[in-house]
Write a structure and sequence with these properties.
By secondary structure, this protein is α/β, with parallel strands linked by helices. The strands form seven sheets. Strands 1, 2, 3, 9, 10, 11, 12, 19 and 20 form a nine-stranded mixed sheet that branches. The chain has a four-stranded antiparallel sheet with strand order 14-17-16-15. The protein binds flavin-adenine dinucleotide.
């Protein structure tokens, strides 16, 4: 159909993103009879969720007593207290039933001898409020994301979800009152731009780890949804919180799952010392990721790194039972042999802390409703706009995500958003954007086709990644961040002047690279201003010049705005389940 002179298609709900979170929400929505479209720039089964290895947490108690309250406690502590406790409560409480639901959908979980779901140990997961290591992580070997994504895709096919595969969402279409009416999107094969109109738009576009030089993320993780929101002057939350995973493969950054340490692997320095025993005698190599990443970096910085350049540490697995490599870690064994020529059954794997996950993102509540902070400091919901998955900040991970809590976040909060919309969408007011509202959302592509302004996009991307890695990596301090931020501001201005050589309308990878680069630079800028402003160390944000946590000033979410300003939002502690957690936390 044509709407205000633009080609348009109309749905009840558009879900931008075909990863775990998008597919989980879409399934609930389609099942309820709504007309739903999943829009994905890659075929959904190639979404980044497919690469998740280690597993998904739930207090099933398959090895003796386990309780969701203990899982919640671990998540609050792991978040370095920046997580919103109402959302964490929902996630941990609903985890066991969500796993059983996935099992019934057909997810082929690894099993124990007695047929129950196998559960491995993962960092930061404990029993009885920190007393001992828990076995809480359900998995399908070391290919859990692959199994999850395939299961959810099949379930969506069964309920007739519409798929717009290899469609690239450009920008939100927003009317004069700030209500969201859908997105502008390019059908990649033809180059045609279409207005995808919807009563509700759900962003499920994943993370943006490609802002860093070394990362475990796929090339498609370019923070597109976060940038779309940022461009609408909706601030992004806790963007300084990027998780560095302790075991990225040296060189490529490919992830070596925490499941390796869950199965009994450990880290060594160049003296052959198991250094985590000194830093964290209690949880050792299964401490939270931010802790292990900092310890590894400290070993490297203090000259105890391995190899000729002393630039990495070693992950030892050769002492594990040979069956573990076949049954539990087949993918990891293959990755180590293919990419660094190391057989982990015989030799240790060279690893280094590598950017892995974005805790920050689009601020929303646990229904997925996107929030913005008004001038008077009050939260306001953005009509018609929702966010779930890694692009969202609910915040269930606070300043540091626990391993295997992201897949859980996708399915619990994806479903919660689906349920909210299913129950409430009838009461939403229809939004009818004007010609200029729609035109604005189409304008980025037009601008790329202007005569060349001499900006080298490849160089720009390289420089941005280098700045982020060097000035906003594992350790941060005022002077280098200030320098990095100044240069990023220049790159940001340049990114708006990028043009593409090939002006044709058909399939054009140069155009998508340019659109993604502009998105990356917005995400990098939001990260930089938030990191520069937070004057404390908390979770993944480690300031050499402010080494302590400062609860008085900074037990707050940061909101990074596109005009460079920073606002703060209170952390939610409104949970009915406060007493045992509060007592345990006081003792922590
Ligand atoms: C190597 C690796 C291993 C991991 N292992 C685990 C694990 O064991 N357990 C765990 O809990 N977590 C793990 N994680 C984290 C977890 O996998 C991710 O956080 C999660 O899968 C993200 O899911 P998502 O639905 O938010 O987005 P994704 O799966 O990244 O999907 C994003 C979707 O958005 C689409 N999209 C993006 N931009 C656009 C656009 N402009 N237009 C149209 N479509 C767009 C993409 O095509 C894609 O379909 C791992 C992460 C990595 C990197």
């Amino acid at each position: 159909m044509i709407m205000n002179d633009f080609k348009a298609r109309e749905f009840d709900v558009i879900v931008v993103g075909g990863g775990g979170s998008g597919l989980r929400a879409a399934h609930t929505l389609s099942q309820s009879g709504l007309k739903v479209a999943v829009v994905s720039k890659v075929f959904p089964l190639r979404s980044h969720t497919v690469s998740a290895q280690g597993g998904i947490n739930a207090a099933l108690g398959n090895y003796g007593d386990d309780q969701w309250q203990w899982h919640m406690y671990d998540t609050v502590v792991g978040s370095d207290f920046l997580g919103d406790q109402d959302a964490i409560e929902l996630m941990c409480k609903e985890a066991p039933e969500t796993i059983i639901e996935l099992e019934h959908m057909g997810l082929p979980f690894s099993r124990n001898e007695d047929g129950t779901i196998y559960q491995r140990s993962f960092g930061g997961q404990t029993l009885n409020f920190g007393q001992e290591v828990a076995h809480r992580t359900c998995c399908a070997q070391d290919r859990t994301g692959h199994a999850l994504l395939h299961t959810l895709y099949q379930q969506n096919v069964a309920v007739a979800t519409n798929f717009l595969n290899e469609w690239f969402a450009i920008d939100l279409v927003v009317d004069a009152n700030g209500s969201v009416a859908g997105v502008s999107a390019i059908e990649m094969a033809t180059g045609e731009i279409v207005f995808l109109k919807a009563t509700a738009t759900v962003l499920a576009t994943g993370g943006g780890g490609q802002i860093f030089q070394s990362n475990t993320n796929a090339h498609i993780c370019t923070g597109d949804g976060m940038a779309m929101v940022f461009r609408q002057n909706i601030g992004l939350q806790d963007m300084e919180m990027w998780q560095f995973h302790p075991t990225g493969l040296l060189g490529s950054g490919i992830l070596i799952s925490e499941g390796t340490r869950g199965e009994g692997g450990y880290l060594l320095n160049s003296n052959g010392e198991r250094f985590m025993c000194d830093y964290a005698p209690h949880l050792k190599d299964l401490s939270c990721r931010d802790v292990v990443a900092r310890c590894s970096m400290t070993e490297i910085r203090e000259g105890r790194g391995c190899g000729p350049d002393k630039d990495h540490v070693l992950l030892k697995l050769s002492h594990l039972d040979p069956e573990v490599f076949i049954e539990k870690l087949p993918g990891i064994t293959q990755i180590a042999m293919t990419y660094v020529g190391v057989d982990p059954r015989k030799d240790p794997i060279p690893v280094v802390p590598t950017c892995h996950y974005s805790m920050g993102g689009i601020p929303c509540n646990y229904h997925g409703q996107v929030l913005t902070v008004d001038h008077d400091g009050k939260d306001r919901k953005v009509p018609g706009l929702f966010a779930i998955g890694e692009c969202a900040n609910v915040s269930v991970h606070g300043a540091n995500r626990l391993g295997a809590n992201s897949l859980l976040d996708l399915v619990v909060l994806g479903r919660a958003c689906g349920r909210y919309l299913q129950e409430n969408i009838q009461s939403f007011t229809a939004v009818n954007p004007s010609h200029s509202d729609i035109e604005r959302a189409f304008s980025r592509c037009k601008n790329l086709k202007k005569p060349s302004q001499g900006i080298d996009a490849v160089k720009l991307r390289k420089e941005m990644k280098k700045i982020m890695q060097e000035d906003f990596g594992v350790f941060r301090e005022h002077a280098s961040m200030e320098k990095g931020l100044k240069r990023l501001e220049v790159l940001r201005t340049m990114s708006k002047k990028i043009t593409i050589r090939d002006q044709s309308a058909i399939f054009n990878t140069e155009m998508f690279n340019a659109l993604e680069l502009q998105n990356l630079i917005e995400v990098a800028y939001a990260t930089a201003i938030a990191a520069f402003s937070r004057q404390e160390s908390r979770g993944a944000h480690s300031r050499v010049d402010y080494p302590d946590r400062d609860d008085k000033k900074w037990l707050k979410h940061s909101i990074a705005n596109a005009d460079g300003t920073i606002q703060k939002r209170s952390v939610s502690k409104q949970t009915k389940f406060t007493a045992p957690i509060e007592t345990a936390l006081r003792e922590h």
